[in-house]
Amino acid sequence: MQTQPFSRQRGLTLVELLVAVALASLVAIAAVASLIVARQGFTSVDTATQLRDNGRFAAGLMRRIILQGGYVSTQYAIDRSHQFKLDATAPEPYIKGFNNARYVQSLAIGTTNTVGSSARGINNSDMLVVRYQSGQTITGGVTDAAMINCSGATATAPVNVGDRMFSAFHIATSTTTGEPTLMCTWFNDSGTESRQPLIEGVESLQILYGTYGVTPNTAPTALAANTLTPPPDRYLRADQLVVSGDDAATIANWERVRSVRIGLVLRGPTGSAPETTVPAQYPFGKTKQSGDASSVPDSMMASTDDPGSSLAAQSDGRLRQTLTFTVHLRNPQDAL
């Protein structure tokens, strides 16, 4: 029986090899693309979670400090013979802010109401100062540890009626990373200033004040006797509470602040967003959809007088989130 001749083929032809290489390359490219997309998705989700955690921390701490504004130690609140307004000199209000301002000590502890051009805030961010006393034990002179400063440390007990602590929130550039950072600066009763970074990557801090019976940049009219504290009827910027050349009227306006609305823009590291160009951010919320050509402003609180009410679109590939919350004050804001 005749056998079949032995085949002399020992490999692939050049065409077959090229086709195999092309197919393998396509598979490899698809696998790498899928890996990149999956990694980008993981990075974005991880960054979004971190930004939410940072936002919760900022909101929790700021709420507690703002709620302390106007707190007076029981010793001085009960004994009405003690007065803050000694020698007819009105003290700085419990809640006071500055529009588009970085931290300057003269703004925090002085009677200045005007922000100079050299003290403008990062990304038009605002500054908030909250004043209060610490509570005391029944025996007096010892703090009851109920009040804290913005670093979370227990406040000391006041020695004199005019002793008040303050905590200030503002944005500054980190000296180690160069990132915009939510900062906490506080003074204790002895006049010692301390500062501590709270959260890195806070790009913008915007603040509005819920007031009653306040017309922007105008001295308030007196309320009727025995009038209950009305709820806020409008939200104003810090500079709108200032009455030029009239410090007493300015303080009277600040004493009518009943709530504080905070808007934050937080950002992640470069490349954390799915896209390179990140859309504009609105610290106080957005009211219309993209492509809406109506005259309704993009932001609920947008104003051409307040450039910080929106943060322009960026091309740095950073994931950004906004956080907005309102704190209603529980303590009277007029000095005893």
Automatic annotation (TrEMBL):
Transmembrane segments: 12-37
Compositional bias segments (type: Polar residues): 287-297
Keyword Transmembrane helix appears in the UniProt entry: yes
A single BP term in Gene Ontology: type IV pilus assembly
Transmembrane found in the keyword field: yes
Annotated PROSITE patterns: PROKAR_NTER_METHYL (PS00409)
Keyword list, A-Z: Membrane, Transmembrane, Transmembrane helix
Region (Disordered) residue spans: 271-317
InterPro entries, sorted: N_methyl_site (IPR012902), PilW (IPR032092)
Name recorded for this polypeptide: PilW family protein
Taxonomic source organism: Comamonas aquatica
